[in-house]
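User: Teach me something about this protein's shape.
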Amino acid sequence: MSHASSRSGILVAGSANLDFVVRAAHVPAPGETVLGREFATFPGGKGANQAVACARAGGAATRMLLALGDDPYAQQLEASLRGAGVELHIVRAPGIATGTAFICLADDAENAITVAPGANNALRAEHLPALDDVSHLLLQLETPIDTITAYAVAAHAAGVRVVLNAAPARKLPTALLDALDVLIVNEGELATVTGVRGGIAEALAHLSMPCVIVTLGARGACARMHGKFHLQAAYRVDPIDTTGAGDTFCGAFTAALGAGLDLPTALARASAAGALATTRLGAQTGVPEHNEVETFMRNQAATVNNATALRELAAYCGLPELT
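Assistant: First, the predicted structure itself:
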């Protein structure tokens, strides 16, 4: 999946939100009021989280196209992104609030999230910057779908590899699907995108893009590239906050592709980075640095991807031929 040209940069186009996080014993059920405990704000938004993860993973310069309001929330998001080494292309949306997310984080590390997109909805097709030095474009679904589709189609036509994290999940336009080189989804998102509620392998049979990756939380990840399956068992951690784990995976994976790494290596690095992110609070504050991921992978090299774990993962994905 590496890009066969002199292009080396990663462009992330998408959302930036300020996360308002409250910890509680459990996520409230519909109609339930839960007494929370600690409260804090963190820089977030799927696009911004993935840009930070991509930058910290190293291997390629990272830029981000985003839309922000002219309020104090925007300043915090800019500071976090610039501090991670992300170059910014900012679309200002005067009179519109910067995006926010309201997160209840339970003691078991699960969460419930409500997003108010705000300025994120101001991104338009004409805002896409020049792609001359871009090898990969990374997208998500927290900005208008017409805009995302326009970016993907333009990048595809320019010879840029297009990576989409289809979250929050929804049915995708054919034009967008046809422009993708890599689709990254979790198990629930896979079902929404394909309309198939069966096994992983059955759902993947309905997708035709070159590479699809399904993240499976504590089970690991399953990738299909040009018809061949690759499995990555999960790295073992004691999670405290899963909020940014998927975004960390996406950013680290795209950075690995931008650095020219092969699929199994990129899958392993992204899985390790995502696992580490669950051991810290905050979506962007929890994203690990490259050297931390390298050390973590070395320490778990003897236990991850053992034969038993891979057999169990293959069986779960409906791939008996790999057991």
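Now, about its shape. Residues 52 and 84 are 6 Å apart (CA to CA). Residues 263-277 form the longest helix (15 residues). If you'd like, I can walk through any region in more detail.
User: That's plenty for now, thanks!
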